[in-house]
Amino acid sequence: MIEVNSDECTGCECCVDICPVEAITMKDNVAVIDQDECTECGSCIDECPVEAIEES
């Protein structure tokens, strides 16, 4: 499962743009991953400039 650390997320939306299945949206300036849509490809982990996204 890939999750966003909401305390670390800066709301830059880089992950939203890179997600190939459009599983990431923004809520209150924090990225939110739709776990039903996420394919766990890891693109968002690689793209996040503040390392707020991690695999658990």
Q: Which class in CATH terms?
A: Alpha Beta
pLDDT average, as an integer? 98
The main sheet comes to: 2 strands, antiparallel
SS class: alpha+beta
Task: Give the strand order, joined by hyphens, for the main sheet.
Answer: 1-4
What's the number of extended β-strand segments? 4
Can you give a write-up of this model?
- The chain is α+β, with helices and mostly antiparallel strands and 56 residues long.
- It has a single domain (2-55), classed as Alpha-Beta Plaits (2-Layer Sandwich), CATH 3.30.70.20.
- It is built from two helices and four strands; from the N terminus they run βαββαβ.
- Strands 1-4 form a two-stranded antiparallel ribbon. A two-stranded antiparallel ribbon has the order 2-3.
- A hairpin with a 2-residue loop joins strand 2 and strand 3 (30-33).
- The radius of gyration is 10 Å and the shape is globular.
- The relative contact order is 0.38.
